[in-house]
Amino acid sequence: MPKKRTYHHGDLKNALIKAGVEILAQDGVSGMSLRKVAMKAGVSHSAPYSHFADKQALIAAISTEGFRQLYERMSAVAEGYNSQPSKQLVEAAWTYIQFALDDPDRFKVMFSGVLEKEKEYPEFVAESQRNFQLVKSIVESNQAAGILRSGSSDLMALSAWGIIHGFAMLLLEGQIPHAILELKSLRKLVEFQLKQIMLA
Amino acid sequence: MPKKRTYHHGDLKNALIKAGVEILAQDGVSGMSLRKVAMKAGVSHSAPYSHFADKQALIAAISTEGFRQLYERMSAVAEGYNSQPSKQLVEAAWTYIQFALDDPDRFKVMFSGVLEKEKEYPEFVAESQRNFQLVKSIVESNQAAGILRSGSSDLMALSAWGIIHGFAMLLLEGQIPHAILELKSLRKLVEFQLKQIMLA
DNA sequence: ACCTGAACACCGTTCAAGT
DNA sequence: ACCTGAACACCGTTCAAGT
Question: Is the pTM of this model over 0.85?
Answer without folding.
Answer: yes
